[in-house]
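Hypothesis: this fold can be encoded by more than one sequence.
Test: take the structure tokens below, design a sequence, compare later.
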């Protein structure tokens, strides 16, 4: 029999199945939880502020499909335009996106147009 080493416990074992990777179910669960916690911890610095932006957009849009706001209004809400999830190709210039919202910082204007993309 071929012996394997459990990636979580580092204990050598003889697998009961050919595709068995972990010593037991508990090791598999603990390994995957540790891996997920590590990723969640690494992304927290980005996801926390992005979630804050999303909550601000949800609050100010209140179910509307499209709305225009003054830049200072967003600034007062503590919205950060540097934290985005994607770019959107516009007809003339690129727009920014935060999850399901597209944000258009209108050139030569103090206004911002926000669209919800459902």
């Amino acid at each position: 029999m071929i012996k394997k080493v459990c990636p979580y416990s580092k204990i050598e074992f003889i697998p009961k199945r050919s595709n068995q990777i972990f010593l037991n179910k508990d090791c598999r669960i603990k390994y995957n939880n540790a891996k997920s916690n590590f990723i969640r911890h690494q992304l927290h610095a980005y996801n926390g502020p992005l979630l804050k932006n999303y909550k601000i957009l949800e609050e100010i849009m209140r179910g509307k499909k499209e709305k225009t706001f003054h830049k200072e209004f967003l600034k007062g809400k503590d919205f950060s335009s540097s934290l985005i999830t994607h770019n959107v190709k516009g007809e003339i210039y690129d727009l920014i996106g935060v999850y399901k919202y597209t944000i258009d910082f209108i050139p030569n204007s103090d206004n911002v147009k926000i669209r919800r993309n459902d």
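DSSP finds two helices and seven strands in the chain. The CA atoms of residues 18 and 39 lie 29 Å apart.
Hypothesis status: open.
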